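Researcher: Here's a chain I'd like modeled. Treat it as a single chain, no partners, no ligands.
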Amino acid sequence: MRVTVAGAGIVGLSCAYRLAEAGHDVTVVAAAPPRESTSAVAGGVVYPPVRRPDERIVRWTAASLAVLRGQDAPGVRFRRGRVLLAPGQPDPQWLPAVDGGVRDGDRVEFTTAVVDTPVYLDWLFSRIAKQGVPVEYRSLTSLSGLGADVVVNAAGLGAGALAGDGSMVPVGGQVVHVADPGLPEFVVDETGPGVTYVIPHGTHVVCGGTEEPGRGDTDPNPAVTADILHRCRALEPRLAGAEVLRSLVGLRPFRREVRLERVGEVVHCYGHGGAGITLAWGCAADVAALVTAG
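Model: Modeled as a single isolated chain. Structure tokens:
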């Protein structure tokens, strides 16, 4: 079956890989290369930073972790870390999906994958190339006329417009990379009005972050950079003297719930917000099943 996947972020590439693996004739069409996608800006710690009831989130997270464990891919390491919860908050819905989750007062400790997303995207891109999947770089204004039997709409922030879905909202997220002083664990603080996180990758640490609904630009704000560094150094004092490497901004494709369904000859898979790396492989398995089922 001829399948066109719209999008070359982590979700689009994962879908393309699974579909090619299943024997389909797959083409990827994207506006830009993977390293220019929102996925490349992500902090990369695999757990779903969502506070909405959706049993699929747990299943997709567990499935993605199982794939990452078995790949031996560059840019992926399994690390212990902790999430600080607001006082009295119940156990997170996703806790059963991660390894060795333990609740200790108002924090949860667990082991999960920490993904250096640009490195991993390069590797995944090379894997689909070895499967013979061509990639075309051009902007799409429609999901029709692509010469495919089935189209997978995994175009991230652009997916909503392609589907005529006005519920998609860009949510800006700024991060700061600093030199890694050798931090052994990640930490995420969910106790404030926003979320602060420190995610070590060996060569650098991703410090974040912000949540800015409706943001339309990707230019880092120096004042926001300073605020992120202040919060992250308070959370992890060993970052006090770490060299600041760069600031980056991504626009998360947010929707109240992930849309994953088949409508005619289109399979929609979008609205992952900041959880693309967490949910991608679980969603890709469902996409492949919907395409194959016909």
